[in-house]
Write a structure and sequence with these properties.
The structure holds 2 protein chains of 2 kinds. Chain A is mostly helical. Chain A has helices at residues 24-30, 36-41, 48-63, 69-97, 103-123, 145-167, 171-177, 185-190, 196-200, 207-210, 231-255, 309-314, 317-321, 326-336, 340-344, and strands at 2-6, 9-14, 132-133, 136-137, 276-284, 287-295, 303-307. The N and C termini of chain B lie far apart (116 Å). Classes of the chains: A mainly alpha, B alpha+beta. The interface between A and B is medium-sized, with 37 and 33 residues.
Chain lengths: 345, 203
Amino acid sequence: MNVTLDGETVVKLQPVFGYLHRNHEKIAEGNSWLAAVPYTDRLDYICPLTNNWAYTLAVETLAGLEVPERAEYIRIITAELTRLQNHVAFMGFILADMGAWGSALMYAFREREKILDLFEALTGARMMCNYMRFGGCRCDLPSGWLESAGQLVEGFPAFLDEMEALLTGNEILLARLQGVAPLTPERAINGGLSGPILRAAGVDYDIRKVDNYGLYSRFKFRVPRGRVGDCYDRFMIRVLEARESVEILKQALVGIPDGPVVNPKAKQRGFRPPAGEAYGRIEGPKGELGFYLISDGSDRPYRFRVRPPSLINLTLLEELCLGTKIADVMVILGSIDIVLGEVDR
Amino acid sequence: MNFPGIGLLKGFVVTARNFLGSYVEKDRLTTRQYPEERPKLPENSRSFPFLVFDGEDPEAGMRCVACKICEKECPPQCIYIIQDRDAAGKPLKRPRIFDIDISVCMSCQICVEVCPFESIRMDTDYELSSFDRFGSLVLDKSKLLKSNAYYHGIHPTEASETDARIEADRKKKEAAAAAKAEAARKATAEKAAKAAHPPEETK
């Protein structure tokens, strides 16, 4: 980004992006419906499984496909694990942005690695999972997977406690985060923000509650909200959301039913949804991730459009940074939690 | 309000616990000494595709019939297939050239899912670095073909399921062929019987 300074105070800021542009939307329009799934992994490469889900949800809306119950449970489990690992990585990254390169990031990545091991055992890859399919998931859980996931979920609150002991009371962290770049709820809504940054500003808006996609209506969880909307609220909201994700996971791991994991009516190869358009959105770890698809009835999408939370949350960066000191800019950018793979696509 | 510095001290306790704990707890010492100590990969793990052949001879036991479905479905289009032909120019059910450019391949496994002949599967070998850009990263048929025993070695569950499916298919086909032969035999026998003793009504 280009930052214009007056002494140490920011007077103008221009984000410059596009260096990671990979033509995702046009590639998807040139390929079959199925072939777009592995490309969605590469949007927000920290959380591939939620990207898979958003795209398959849009296609299922378009084609009116039912998803078996077990597949819905697996989707919720993988999506909440993705949220956990995203928020844990965020805690490490924001510390690294503040100059605390080392302990926090290493502890966070140690825990994240365990979740990635679960993903590898289930999908075959740590990050480029390519797991969800139209009307379900690609394969069933391997034997012993639920037990190891249960163990991880059991141990996770202890790790979050450790992270909080390390970070939330830390005077340096408080001095760097509290009162920095507060955001009013009105401005957050008008800016089109979504996800943790919107809830940190005090707006009660979680698509898991609003849309009730998947089977989220069956699960009991709270939506944490911030009061001030400053960087500290944005940091804490991730810690609290991680705790809520642990609650959802506990319920899902107990309640998962038996059954098929993919709708047998759904054809993966040579899939042709009826002509029409659909918008599927989910509450990704970073915000509202939506896919807008237009089908002309052929074997490839006519129009494929991604609504990336990272890009739209980034649009308020200049406003948040104006009048702050140069040292705060990195912290504010870190607190928005962007992934450039999704910003540029 | 806390006494200033308490939060910092709490943090130091955590780092100290992690530092000292790394001497006793395996969970806190996560570094793997890679080339000496290799991780045990989960069974579902995947790297790049390979071709399965049955029996001993790669060419004779090749399952691939050059239907080119994987070539068509591959998202980054990294598969290149030319069908084999016999001396008379008649197409044969096997590929003459089967190349996979693993510098382009993104390990998505879609070729495996769409293959109707259980012929292409995912390898788990990840040590494939090379000094040139093209030579050793474009895998040809000789490098891609690996035996069914090797497949059983890396993905035991999946390989057994595949073998069971192939066996069931073969039995079904055999049964169908036997039924057909039986029907044909019956038909010829009936014809012969009809010829020997023409039924009354036809007169």
